[in-house]
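User: Hi! I have a protein structure encoded as tokens and I'd like to know what sequence might fold into it. I'm fairly new to this, so please keep things simple.
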């Protein structure tokens, strides 16, 4: 395209997805993030650019630390907020917004970005919109909140088991869900069940 025409968001998103496929190399992932930022600038109402940016940033934050990690979580949360505002009835924006909130809480990187309640709200919205989204991952996130949060903050290992078991309906092939369910079983003393999931 010549210099006066902006590349359409759909084309930038398609290229970004190719970089995401090679995300083990963070340089490739960063290329994808750059393309998604451009897509969101070219077409501010692009739901697909924004929820993907939240997803890509979440992955980047999970593989970096310090200021870099904080920036990725913050940008991911902002992109997720934009996506949920653009299309509140679709699950992707809510899921990746909640994931960035949860990641920042777990890494204790950005105080005040979100609370456990914020993460719960986003995941419950995902469940209402599409219970099986990402192979039951919303149930896994809710279970992890209950597993990792202290009781005083509303954590409950028994409830964690219940949430993750619900997720299995959609996520028999979700290795992370099964791994975390094993952790939850271990936490409530169900060692045989834990072994079976592992």
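Assistant: Happy to help. Inverse folding works backwards from shape to sequence: for each of the 198 positions I chose a residue that suits the local structure. Here it is:
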């Amino acid at each position: 395209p010549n210099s006066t025409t902006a590349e359409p968001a759909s084309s930038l998103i398609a290229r970004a997805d190719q970089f995401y496929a090679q995300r083990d190399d963070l340089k490739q992932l960063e290329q994808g993030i750059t393309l998604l930022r451009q897509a969101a600038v070219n077409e501010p109402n692009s739901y697909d650019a924004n929820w993907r940016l939240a997803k890509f940033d979440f992955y980047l934050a999970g593989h970096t630390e310090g200021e870099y990690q904080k920036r990725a979580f913050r940008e991911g949360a902002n992109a997720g907020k934009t996506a949920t505002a653009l299309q509140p009835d679709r699950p992707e924006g809510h899921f990746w917004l909640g994931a960035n909130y949860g990641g920042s809480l777990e890494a204790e990187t950005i105080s005040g970005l979100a609370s456990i309640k914020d993460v719960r709200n986003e995941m419950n919205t995902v469940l209402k919109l599409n219970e099986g989204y990402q192979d039951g991952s919303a149930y896994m996130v809710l279970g992890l909140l209950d597993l990792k949060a202290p009781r005083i903050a509303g954590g409950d290992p028994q409830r964690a088991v219940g949430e993750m078991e619900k997720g299995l309906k959609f996520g028999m092939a979700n290795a992370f869900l099964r791994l975390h369910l094993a952790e939850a079983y271990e936490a409530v003393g169900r060692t045989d069940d834990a072994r079976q999931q592992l």
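A useful reference point when you look it over: The CA atoms of residues 150 and 194 lie 21 Å apart. Feel free to ask if any position seems puzzling.
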